[in-house]
What we know:
Layout: H1 10-17, H2 21-31, E1 37-38, E2 44-45, H3 48-62, H4 67-71, H5 75-88, H6 93-104, H7 108-119, H8 124-144, H9 150-171, E3 181-187, H10 194-205, E4 209-217, H11 223-226, E5 232-237, H12 247-258, E6 264-268, E7 283-287, H13 290-296
Parallel strand pairs: 3-4, 3-5, 5-6, 6-7
Antiparallel strand pairs: 1-2
Helix pairs in contact: 3-5, 3-6, 5-7, 6-7, 6-8, 6-9, 8-9, 9-10
Amino acid sequence: MNNIKQDFTIKDLENISGIKAHTIRIWEKRYNLLQPKRTSTNIRYYSNDSVQKLLNIVLLNNNNFKISKIAKMSDEEMLLKSRELAFESAINDEAINSFKLSMFQFDKVLFNNTYNKLLHKKTFRDVFKDVFIPFLTHIGLLWQTDTLLPAHEHFISNLIAQKIQINTEKLQYSVSNSNKTYVLFLPENEIHELGLLYLNYELVLRGNHTIYLGQSLPLDNLDYFFKNGRDICFVTSMTVMPYDDKIEAYFREIDDILENTGHELIAIGRKTSLLEHTDFKSKISLHDRVSDLLKEL
């Protein structure tokens, strides 16, 4: 557990909550809403409890509760009232804030209630596009700035993955016959699969036959499909793997395997930009984002 972040700077709180550090300091001084600790060199730092409390304060304040009134609430009152509001308001920005609360509090009930409220007003596709994608983009920024605890990211990612899988399962029985098979996989040691899971959902929704192989797959595990007589479109997504200095060699190996076959490869992710000027012998296409690919399908 030593790699789990326990302490947060005021800049971390600003990144997570969207509230400027200057405002957070005012709330501290004027209303005593947060009580930061200090290092031996007098630098403020905050606990995970402070992060949760600040998100509750923001939710209440966004719903017309004055800071002066919030300051008079006990921590328990604040938690109960903010959770009540989170249940009631589940459209876009409010839903994203509720999902943040559920993530930092490991609150599966709040996540599911927020999600179910959204489904009363939106389709699953709209929920993913309008709420999950902006939320996950924000999570990515928190990860890049070392603000997010790995345990929090795993918790919320697994809940979203479950929703994608449930909605994909509902479609499996209505898949029509298609001439092409899509084989979806992540490179070895790559575990970030939400984008690929959602792409699998969209492909099935369009009546395609898919085979989902999931995380961290060595290339030699694809031999069965490489040798298959049926035309196959391999689809992969790259968030952190392969490493930048290994990515060209990785694609050269795939290019050699696919040459003179009827197979093709679609690769998605920011790492594809490292291959923009690479000439391939086989049919390989590159896309920055899942949304870019979906426009072409």
